[in-house]
Write a structure and sequence with these properties.
This protein has 377 residues and is of the alpha/beta class. The protein folds into two domains: 90-254, Alanine racemase (TIM Barrel, Alpha-Beta Barrel), CATH 3.20.20.10; 261-376, Lyase, Ornithine Decarboxylase, Chain A, domain 1. Helices cover 30% and strands 24% of the residues. It has ten helices and 18 strands. Helix 3 (53-62) links the parallel strand 2 and strand 3. The longest helix has 17 residues, at 186-202. It is elongated, with a radius of gyration of 22 Å.
Length: 377
């Protein structure tokens, strides 16, 4: 959405396009909503969503912890004044030297989902806490995260058992129900599997003390999504059903849901053209596309709201594409987007809800285009 602060910045600063503008006040309010919805949960911000230093500093001051995916993200969080005990290395695919470097920087919590990863952590970060990631189907998510990350429950039992035998602390179990998860009941299915793993390990005397429920909390794009409070109610219902009063510590890792609606991208129309007769749909080419930060339009999975200065003028369908000389750089074609009939070359198009997974997806110099510039207000 276009907040007053973002509107004033664009009006007075008139930055070159394309650019991303973030409103810290929206992030502050959304963080509070998560805290009220799940007061029992520790909030670990998924840094990969948007690692802008101002965002990390804000969240650090609000008391957040941080989920990181690489050593540079560890260093960025430390630079924001965060103690290393508030950092969790949540990527299950790590080089041994990166584990060793993170350990040297004070990180003591690492994600695993395989025996080989346990071996690496045991060698490079002895005595550390580990949590094993469960595989989920991602049903109900617009951007599923299935197959590549996580393991089946029986493998998770073996992995955590191995962690204990290797001198590590089998601290937790984690899962992710898929990014932009619009079904609050998705956590119920994952928690049921998690409870089985915890029970089996408890029978062997291995007590898992923490459940990391991942992210998945959505941003609002073209359709309304459930409120944070709705997710909180469903998650707590599922936790009580599976664990009663013997509930482990709870962690959530919001990324998109925390910063997505705090930002928008200002873009410019570079070209409007038709490929065939007048009966064919016209194409609008923007100065930003898949390689400039809009990678999540792949398969048209994420459909961003678009706004122009034309207000409520009549709209017609357009195929929307980016500026690069790569044929996959088409944003919306299977389901064209509607833009004002009078749209012209040089007009600006605001792409809303783009505070997450845009600047970090932007290529570094493809076709010579620079990375997406970010402004924080």
């Amino acid at each position: 959405m276009t907040t007053r602060k973002i509107h004033d910045f664009l009006e007075h600063s008139r930055p070159e396009t394309p650019c991303l503008v973030m409103d810290l006040d929206v992030i502050r309010e959304t963080y509070g909503q998560f805290g009220r919805a799940l007061p029992q949960a520790a909030i670990f911000y998924a840094v990969k969503a948007n690692p802008a230093p101002q965002i990390l500093t804000l969240l650090a001051g609000l008391g957040a912890s941080f989920d990181v995916a690489s050593v540079p993200e560890v260093e960025a969080v430390l630079a924001a004044g965060v103690c290393s005990n508030r950092i969790s290395y949540g990527n299950t695919i790590k080089k041994a030297r990166d584990i060793e470097r993170a350990y040297a920087l004070g990180v003591r919590q690492f994600a695993v989902d395989s025996h080989a990863e346990v071996d690496k952590v045991a060698a490079a970060a002895p005595g550390s806490r580990v949590f094993c990631r469960l595989l989920t189907d991602g049903a109900g998510a617009d951007w599923p995260l299935s197959r590549k990350f996580g393991c089946e429950p029986d493998v998770a039992v073996d992995v955590l058992r191995q962690s204990w035998r290797s001198g590590l602390d089998p601290f937790g179990l984690s899962f992710h129900v898929g990014s932009q998860q619009t079904d609050p009941s998705a956590w119920y299915r994952a928690l049921k599997e998690a409870a089985g793993v915890l029970q089996k390990l408890a029978e062997e005397g291995i007590i898992i003390r923490c459940l990391t429920l991942g992210g998945g909390f959505p941003a609002r794009y073209l359709k309304d999504v459930p409120r944070s409070a709705d997710y909180g109610c469903e998650i707590m219902r599922a936790l009580r059903a599976q664990f009663g009063n013997a509930m482990p510590d709870i962690v959530i890792e919001p990324g998109r849901g925390l910063v997505g609606n705090a930002g928008l991208i200002k873009s410019e129309v570079v070209l409007i053209s038709r490929k065939a007769s007048a009966a064919s749909l016209p194409w609008v080419f923007l100065d930003i596309g898949k390689f400039g930060g809009l990678a999540e339009t792949m398969d048209e999975a994420i459909r961003y709201p678009l706004a122009t200065a034309y207000g409520n003028a009549e709209t017609i369908p357009f195929i929307l594409a980016g500026p690069t000389c790569d044929s996959v750089d088409v944003l919306y074609e299977l389901k064209p987007c509607h833009l004002p009939r009078g749209l012209k070359i040089g007009d600006h198009v605001l792409i809303e809800g783009t505070g997450a997974y845009t600047a970090t997806y932007a290529s570094v110099g493809f076709n010579g285009f620079p990375p997406l510039e970010t402004y924080v207000v």
